[in-house]
Amino acid sequence: MMPNEGHSQAFKNPVSVLVVVYTRDLEVLLLERADREGFWQSVTGSCELNETLYETAARELREETGINANDHNLVDWNLSNEFEIFKHWRGRYAPGITHNLEHAFGLLVPGRVSVNISPREHVQFEWVRIEAAMNRVFSWTNADALKFLVKRHASLR
User: Do 30 and 138 form a contact (C-beta atoms < 8 A)?
Assistant: First the structure.
């Protein structure tokens, strides 16, 4: 089943991506949400009609940060988590939708690359050490993806 199959585009699709942008030194790009002060996260977004998970990750990366996935190595980590959608965001989804399935991707960049945030979605960004990032992100799925990155990084050394 395609990520959007059976869902109207009038509502958000309960299938999304999370993209962790990071450097070799495990500095991580975090974005503060415009609609929730103090809510820090990696790049996230819902799949659109007939869009693959990879296409969603590349699009959201470009829209939220200005970073072009084709200039780097966007990798599907084959890690996914289902979570309950916060009540204050449920109105964005079709009636009865209470959970979202999020798929994690990683994007290794050569250093603190230039970032152009979308002011509609985020108010600021920071590059932070991964340990600090794990404590700052508001979502357990984001923290889970950062823990996965630590293990992945250690195994590639």
Answer: no
Tell me the sheet residues that pair with 124. Answer: 32
Location of structure tokens 């992100």: 137
> How does DSSP classify residue 71?
G
| Domain spans in the chain, listed from the N-terminal domain onward | 15-155
Q: What does the alpha-carbon distance between residue 92 and residue 156 come to, in Å, rounded to a whole number?
A: 39
pLDDT tens track of the chain, all 157 residues? 344 444 445 888 888 999 999 999 999 999 999 988 999 999 999 999 899 999 999 999 999 999 999 999 999 999 999 988 888 878 888 899 888 889 999 999 999 999 999 999 999 999 999 999 999 999 999 999 999 999 998 887 6
Topology of domain 15-155, per CATH?
Nucleoside Triphosphate Pyrophosphohydrolase (3.90.79)
Instruction: Give the C-alpha separation, 148 to 154, whole Å.
Output: 10
CA triple 85-87-8, angle to 5 deg: 60
